[in-house]
Design a protein that fits this description.
heterodimer, A: about 270 residues, mainly alpha, ABC transporter involved in vitamin B12 uptake, BtuC, 11 helices, B: about 240 residues, alpha/beta, Rossmann fold, 2 domains, three-stranded antiparallel beta sheet
Chain lengths: ~270, ~240
């Protein structure tokens, strides 16, 4: 318990909890829109932003934010124009983002920089400034989700909600893409770009059979996500494993338990 | 509350389709389609599979702008669209009926400023208010389509376009729904464009029948049709 008195541990719990709440609230929209792969796509694009910032001498994490916002807008535009299929676009941005990131980092000739921190997270290295940024981004995103709650549900439905001669649902989908970009931006600093998708999707899959409404799913997914982050971080104090893998490990355990309970109820 | 428009307005078509054609590559989907729809009428659009009905609907709704010809619509900001209800999608997240109705009536998506009364609107379409907090996807196909109609009505539309609305619904429930659509069309003084395969059911409720198969084959009042017509193919060869 003495470990809990360390500032870096406290920061990890606060940052992780903020991410868990945001991922829990946004997760149902991601699952509903059938765009679970989008978080991975965004994470790879964020790596290109990180590499670009490194090349031009900026802060890598902050460099990811404009890259995410610009590319999420581009991805939205390409999807709305229905020029390419979603899976082809995903492959384009997954590979393209990674290739650009590798090129930028190579050109920056930074021997200390490690992509691993952003791929798999570095929640124990959060600073107070990082926490302020994560807190502000989380509050902003939650306010937007609260204000646009029903429009966001409609815009992420499958098939999409349409209004003849108006593009409002399409514009709300752009807003949703920006919100997803923000959660990925926080995710790459905490749990890792390659693992944020699990925090968005798995809690929804765990609570889905027990819910009758979108609101119930959102509350359930947020509680599950928060539990997994706190439990994973608490385990990391005693087990010599990366916190990110323990957080996802808790989620996967809950998912398997849910499966066993469903199986038992069915028989 | 049957609202009768002045005859001057009634004489002007609310939807005017003029020489509309569309091709994708070498394939002609629509060829020189022209017709008018009068205000406060129920018009059925019938045609075999692949006839271009959904393409034409998309063009009328402004969802497809890649065509030649002209579409003129009065009050186009008050069109509502109801798509075909698919069978229950196992991957769909649950949405309560209250949430489903709220999506359609949220101020950003609807021009209606008044607070909608979901209970009253559900009563209009013959659904008990008890379903408000049930999952929309747990309802039967017929109930889901009635709730979809209620959602469209919340925005007080002047034109409602229904694209094969009852295709996935059992035959027993269909007749009641067609009668409901006709009743609501008159009660709300709406113009309805109904796309369907179900000729026998929709002829008695229609003011006009259009038969499409790339080009328009039939454009007449149901009373002008022979009584033994049961398929779009028969209708295509019929002259009013």
């Amino acid at each position: 318990m003495e470990l809990l008195t360390y500032t870096f541990v406290q920061y990890a719990f606060i940052g992780g909890s903020l991410l868990a709440v945001l991922a829990g609230v946004l997760g149902p929209f991601v699952v509903q829109s059938r765009q679970a792969i989008a978080s991975d796509m965004f994470a790879h694009v964020a790596l290109a932003g990180i590499g670009g910032a490194l090349l031009f001498g900026g802060s890598p994490w902050w460099g990811a934010l404009p890259a995410l916002l610009i590319t999420s807008t581009l991805i939205w535009w390409l999807l709305e124009s229905e020029t390419y299929s979603p899976d082809a676009l995903a492959m384009f941005f997954l590979s393209g983002g990674l290739a650009l990131a590798l090129a930028f980092v190579h050109l920056a000739r930074d021997t200390v920089f490690s992509f691993e921190n952003y791929l798999f997270g570095s929640i124990l290295t959060l600073t107070l400034t990082d926490l302020y940024a994560i807190g502000a981004a989380t509050i902003l995103a939650l306010l937007i989700v609260g204000y646009f709650w029903y429009p966001l549900i409609g815009a992420t439905q499958n098939p999409a909600f349409l209004i003849p001669y108006r593009r409002t649902p399409q514009l709300v989908r752009l807003l949703y893409f920006w919100l997803l970009a923000i959660v990925v931006w926080i995710g790459i600093k905490t749990i890792g770009g390659l693992l944020i998708g699990a925090l968005l999707v798995i809690p929804v899959l765990i609570v889905r059979p027990y819910c009758n409404s979108f609101k119930q799913i959102t509350i359930g997914a947020t509680c599950t996500s928060l539990f997994s982050v706190i439990a994973g971080l608490a385990l990391a104090l005693f087990v010599d494993l990366p916190p990110s893998s323990l957080i996802i490990g808790v989620l996967l355990t809950l998912f398997v338990l849910k499966g066993l309970v469903s199986l038992r109820l069915r028989t | 509350m049957y609202l009768q428009l002045p005859s001057r307005v009634m004489n002007n078509p609310i939807i005017k389709v003029e020489h509309v054609s569309k091709a994708v590559g070498s394939r002609q989907l629509l060829s020189d389609v022209s017709f008018d729809i009068a205000p406060q009428s129920l018009v059925s659009l019938i045609g075999p599979n692949g006839a271009g009905k959904s393409t034409l609907v998309k063009i009328i709704l402004g969802l497809d702008t890649n065509y030649t010809g002209t579409i003129t619509i009065e009050n186009k900001e008050r069109i509502q669209y109801i798509a075909q209800q698919s069978d229950n999608d196992p991957y769909q997240l649950p949405l309560s009926v209250h949430e489903y109705l709220s999506v359609g009536s949220t101020r950003l998506y609807s021009r209606q400023a008044a607070q909608p009364d979901f209970t009253e609107e559900l009563k209009h379409v013959g659904v008990s208010a008890e379903v408000l907090h049930q999952s929309y996807h747990s309802l039967s196909g017929g109930e889901r389509q009635r709730v979809a109609i209620a959602r469209a009505l919340l925005t007080n539309p002047t034109i409602m376009v229904l694209d094969e609305p009852l295709a996935a619904i059992d035959y027993g429930s269909r007749q009641g729904l067609y009668e409901l659509i006709r009743h609501l069309q008159k009660d709300h003084a709406m113009t309805v464009l109904l796309v369907s395969h179900d000729i026998e059911s929709i002829l008695p409720i229609s003011d006009k029948v259009l038969c499409l198969n790339q080009t328009l084959h039939t454009n007449c009042h149901p009373s002008e049709l022979a009584p033994n017509i049961t398929s779009p193919q028969q209708l295509m060869h019929h002259h009013c």
